[in-house]
């Protein structure tokens, strides 16, 4: 029988190394154990809006921030895949997808995308600065202000796995969605201990929204069908049935969040009107950043100044065509462009939303065209006195 003699110093050394390894593994493992009192390390922001309400612009304000991982309308994939269903039926799948994205779990896209895929298969990927810079793409720095065009040319062929890798390196995950019509659907996310969710509810005067929707009738037709539950048939919104549904949802969301809100909504809901943002961008942006626990960097300040004053590289060619001189007049354009007949119809289906969100109804074509008559009530005033608020008509 052969005996192998092992010197005792080697045995001791071996035991020490093994003990060290076990201790190391234990420390690693225990640091992964969830502790109930521990807060999630990331902040999750949902920009909740509807089509043509300035949400791409607000999305950019977050996307360009170096601490933010941003995705624009990831639930587009849900709607496109299951277009024969109604918005109500799809609510839960949309919520599930949003939750996974907040947690940087991109496997949720397996259900909606081809198995072999690149970064560029993700809807509107190139508007996300995080997907145009390291570690997702080597062409830009995280602190750069990126443009959709330049990013598209340089970053589209990176593998899809970069989305998840990039997401995990940020302190803030921000998602813009237009596919929620009910705040209560989001309650499970607000109470989920693995999330730290805050909601920015962005609204816009429904009459301005209609004017803008008229410029993209074809692009909205499939989504309209889903909102109206037409089993996959594309529809125009000639009778403002979709608008009615959108207005109803804004009232529902705003009422649910402000009249008798549940405790878990405290400090987690902020309503922003597009018109206020356009009139006083810096103060509204500061408020949104403060709400989101983000600080304004010098580069961002300069960029915001530029885009709100029509300066800097790119100028009006950028995705969010907004300069403050333009934007204020653009936000009033519906008053010259739409007929009074149409305005009356929109005011009928959206009366509740117009009143509640602090806009004035018009009674005549004369009032409609008279731009000296401001139809946007001051923000503080309308926030202060919802219940006693009496529209002039
Ligand atoms: C992904 O990028 C590769 C490399 O450039 C390209 O050959 C391939 O066609 C792309 N795949 C898809 C699904 O776009
Ligand atoms: C919806 O459309 C599909 C295919 O076009 C059809 O098979 C189905 O019967 C329709 N469902 C309803 C409820 O109309
Ligand atoms: C803002 O515009 C100025 C002047 O065109 C330009 O020098 C500067 O780089 C721009 N800032 C940003 C952050 O784009």
UniProtKB/TrEMBL annotation:
GO terms for molecular function: N-acetylglucosamine 6-O-sulfotransferase activity. Its EC number is 2.8.2.-. The keyword Glycoprotein applies. Belongs to the sulfotransferase 1 family. Gal/GlcNAc/GalNAc subfamily. This is Sulfotransferase. It is an enzyme of class 2 (transferase). Keywords: Carbohydrate metabolism, Glycoprotein, Golgi apparatus, Membrane, Signal-anchor, Transferase, Transmembrane, Transmembrane helix. It holds the Pfam family Sulfotransfer_1. GO terms for biological process: carbohydrate metabolic process; keratan sulfate proteoglycan biosynthetic process; N-acetylglucosamine metabolic process; sulfur compound metabolic process. InterPro entries: Carbohydrate_sulfotransferase, Gal/GlcNAc/GalNAc_ST, P-loop_NTPase, Sulfotransferase_dom. It comes from the Eukaryota. Residues 44-352 form the Sulfotransferase domain. It is a single-pass type II membrane protein. The chain crosses the membrane at residues 6-27.
